[in-house]
Hints:
Layout: E1 2-4, H1 10-23, E2 30-33, E3 51-54, H2 63-66, H3 69-83, E4 90-94, E5 98-100, E6 114-116, H4 129-137, E7 153-157, H5 158-167, H6 182-193, E8 198-200, E9 205-208, H7 211-215, E10 223-226, H8 228-231, H9 243-288
Parallel strand pairs: 1-2, 2-3, 6-8, 9-10
Antiparallel strand pairs: 4-7, 5-10
Amino acid sequence: MVIPCHPKDEILLSLCIASLIRCCPQIRIITVISPDPDRLSLASDPAFARVRWVGEDAFPFQLNDLGSGWRYQQALKLYAPLVLPDLLDDVVLVDADTVWHTEQLAFVQHDGVALYSVSRQASDIEGYEPFFHLLKSWGIHRVSAEQSGIVHHMVFQREILVALHLHVPSLWKILSTGKPSEWELYYNFAFARYPKRVARRPLRFIVTGSVEQARCPGPGVDFVACHSHRRLGFVDTHEDGDYSAKQSRAWQSGRRSQHACHYVNLSSILLVFSLAVVVKLLVEWLRTGRLA
């Protein structure tokens, strides 16, 4: 299992990892990709002994090549099973802001068929039409107009992924402009060309900005995606692909706002305390005619 992680999602990463270990018995190891893995506070946590932390140096592209962090993490996913050592042929890619709740969850059947959840919400594919048109130029067509593969995780099978890279040389380049989707790219290629290796299975998920809802979503929810821009009340459709820059500004702004709230709360407490002291002294003076 592979999880790309930006520091903005570290608040969810521990929940994501713990929930995967609890719910998914097929997991052997979890590999977290981070620009500076040594700075992630969880890297030294003994509770995550099954997790290994790797940097981004092994990949044949850099953040600047993709134009934004949002596109960059998509490319990391599509190359990780081929670049990182010691991974099995079936690799589950997971967004760092997902939290899982259904136990004994399998991603690959005993016969080797990989299982794929789908989304039926039209909003999930808004703004992707230019990317779908680009895929058609490579002979990759959507297998269903009513279903989307954008569900915040996916099984990448090495044989299919190698075939995809051979079919689209320098694959990362088609992610470098506009609003792409690594999930739609792999999902449609796999179901169109390897139908016996893949199968759909429904999972119920919700998308939220509440960490508390991610922890306790209620009955019947298999997993929760808790996006950072929703946590900050920030709307971004990725239409210009500049997710990273705008998200980073919003993330820093949110942190400043949180610090400002702490200062305001502290000031309010001190003001209330001071008023209470003044009132007590005034009452004492009215009662005795002198101050203590």
